[in-house]
Amino acid sequence: MPEHPLSGYAIVDLSTGIAGAYCTKLLADGGAEVVKVEPPQGDPLRAWSASGADVIEGTDGALFSYLACSKRSVVADPDGDTEFVDALLADADAVLWSRGPGIAAAPQFAPDEIHRRHPHLTVTAITPFGLTGPWSERPATEFTLQAWSGGIVGLGRGAPDRAPVYVGGQVGEYLAGAYASAATLASRLRGGAELIDLSMLETSILGLTYYPVTYFEMLGRPWRDARRLTVPGIARAKDGLVDIGCGTAQQWFDLCAMTGHVEWIDEDSPLTITQQATEHADELYAWVADQTVDEIRDLATAFRIPNAPVAHGANVERLDHYVERGSFIVNPRDGFTQPGHPYRMAPAALRPPEPAPRLGEHTDLYRPRNSVPGRDRGASTARNALPRRDGLPLAGLRVVDMTTFWAGPSCTHLMAMLGADVIHVESTRHPDGTRLIAGIPATEQLWWERSPIFSGLNTNKHGVTLNLQHPTGRELLGRLIATADVVVENFTPRVLESMGLTYDAVKAITPDIVMARMPGFGLDGPWRDNPAFAYVIEAAAGISWLTGYPDLNPFEPYSVGDPNAGIHALNAILLALEHRRKTGEGSLVEAAMVDAALSIAAEQVIEYSAYGALLQRSGNRGPTAAPQNLYRTNETDEFGRLDSWVALAVETDAQWAGLCEALGHPPWTTSDGLTTASGRRARHDLLDDHLARWCGERTANEIVDMLWAHGVPVAKVMQPHRQTELPQLSARGFFEPVDHPVNPPTPHSTLPFRSSRGPQRVHTASAPLLGEHNAEVLRELGLDDEEISRLEADGIIGTTIAR
């Protein structure tokens, strides 16, 4: 049996809910020993089913069984087992904490107290707003956090004649868990001994919005100022739903040709691609309706237009690509279908899922401190404990960053902010795609340096240009790789393979290299060469299926697919680096965007295979709260429309009582049918009618102040470019001003967690100008100034976009 990267790494799990459970699942997948400490009644997640399926007493809900694979369970009573839990913490390397019942609610097991009493630990705390700041104790749910983040309206999702809609499926919980896992792994590299304070609001901002503050401040306009349907987007074919993307001008031209309407192509049109597509929406939808899903996808693939079937719980595991890749596996305890790992690697080996524990299954084994099963603590500490060192977690690592657009750069950007020396490789003919999407006229000087998205994704990096179509460019890339620890790329597989840059070729240059490949659909399978943008990944994984209104086609979230892939790829790279530290071996990491998306959409296939329940989209209602919805206020928005909203979610009876108190106990709230969560769900239309009238007479600030004062989760539906106006983000320093040689000083988002060991400031350098560090990097590789000048004259390197 291979040793897994985190073998011997011990984690005590004091969390409740999906975010903490997903974090420790990722760590357990890596081989960590995760001991889940539960109250006598068990983690509430054991009784959870999103579809409302009856979880028989003495058994566990399927989602728990998925998230708890490979973990151990002990029961600890907060009234009498504090010494037992302290003994577990004394023997551990890390602890994961979130608010909840049992031990985690005891004052002596608050994160700062754990850190004080057990200073050797990495203490990772997941909370809605963070442990510090004026909102740190405010109530919240994922739904209200999406509203505060700007993610509900951030990319113009939805129909203009209806309320905006949130991204369904509890994706924010999974994002927070993935960030918490990566933060814990990064902490290990510098010896732990720190308190990591993760904010779910901040992970939602990074996962559901597209650097809106930087965009607005740099260009003076928001990314989107209105909701509009994506055309063609998700459309109904003869036999089902299909997603067809049109993210670039070339894809629009190809779509026109594919549908037989080349007359629609107008390269001189003042309209954007989106506007041109919308002009022909009726004709496009009619064309789609006359074809089958397979016919459309075959054509779109031939024209290299992003496309995907719209997956859901009932069909996703049967799609040919997932069947061929073995993307789904059988739960080892309860036999339902679940996704496999969100990434793959070799020779570093992830742990195959082991059966989830029953409540307290391992309590007796862990109580005697000197007889922990299968583990000699002294030996594992000697082998695995890393000495505490100063500096950032990834300091000393060099990363060759061959990524573009969003998913790949978001991964390498996190590495740069955590201290790695990241060298971003572009070419003057094929620069990073985000340089080209700011809408700056090509007649403006240095227009390619004015993209807020490129700036937001690339601070702290070095930038070089190399023409990889030329043998000299490829030879220089090889010399650069020889100095690196990690290579990251996110092209379709054929691109690097056509240049001979396979893992074997890279390993021949640097035998212990970690090479992370981030294709949309993976390195094999029938869809492997399909172009992948966030929206087709979201459709293919099932995320889109749960987003939108039940009487309309699903809406593309158009956001989470990329950053979700980036944070999962970072987790995989950190595991591969841990394997290298132990063995001296490098690894090939395959971090396909779609595998990461399948993992955060897991509940759909789990619910269908375990209970026969097909989860459905329901607008702004959700499985965890009633009432839950958006309600219009009496204000006009900044664009002069009656389009201002608040998000409200009641998850508990106590919150319902708080809502009734805030409303002044009007007669309609006293109905016996509203005293239980099931009764409130059954009468949701009635609740919506009354709450819509009440909110419609007030401003958002009045509503938030009144409801928060009574413990009710509530939020303003923020325009995302107004994120800097949130006092919680200001107090935590989530945005930092960044100077730039071409653009004015502009706020940039940072990491979604703070550490007791720093850094105090995240951004140390602006995003690089095109080829800004060519001479610096090439001199390091041994070239002199004359050789560098010759390379520029020959077009191998450069600092200006080639026309």
Automatic annotation (TrEMBL):
GO molecular function per UniProt: CoA-transferase activity
Pfam families xrefs: CoA_transf_3 (PF02515)
InterPro entries per the UniProt record, alphabetical: CoA-transferase_III_domain (IPR050483), CoA-Trfase_fam_III (IPR003673), CoA-Trfase_III_dom3_sf (IPR044855), CoA-Trfase_III_dom_1_sf (IPR023606)
Highest taxon, organism lineage: Bacteria
Keyword list, A-Z: Transferase
Coiled coil: none
Region of interest (Disordered), ranges: 361-387, 740-762
Protein name: CoA transferase
